[in-house]
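Standup notes, structure subgroup. Blocker cleared on the methionine sulfoxide input:
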Amino acid sequence: MPEMLNIASTTDREVRYDALLPQAAALVAEGPDMVGAMANLAAAIHDTFAFLWVGFYRVVGNELHLGPFQGPIACTRIAYGKGVCGSAWKEGRTLVVPDVDAFPGHIACSSEARSEIVVPVRDRSGNLVAVLDVDSTEKGGLDERDARGLERVAQLLDRWA
Ligand code: SME
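Run returned:
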């Protein structure tokens, strides 16, 4: 296993996702299970893009429970349909929120967060088992390019789900 990521020093976000993906796949293959793979993915995404917060919430019963993450401390439980995370779970799709203040019911874990993306994590049968949540300090700091890139990363986890 390599000691560090090798990501080109380009500002082109799509190029950086392309560079991250095979390295993320190698990290996920190391496991040793879903939680270990999530932990390394959170670190890899956080290091690559310097986002404020990158982490996972796992579906446990009718709640999302905080999982591996990088960034400031965060809320530990989110109810189905609540906040951006609970809404992405309920709607079963990626939510891109360019301005968190414009999202009714946004849960502010950190007052520094200005934009957010939440991506479903599914098992091989297509069941939603977790969400990948990313926060940026910039309004409009996350967009469709991130949504597509993060979906590719999240899909890697199906081998452990
Ligand atoms: N903002 C999220 C809560 C989780 S934190 O961003 C880490 C939401 O509205 O669901």
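Discussed briefly. Helices lie at 13-30, 34-49, 83-91, 144-155.
Next: hand off to the docking folks.
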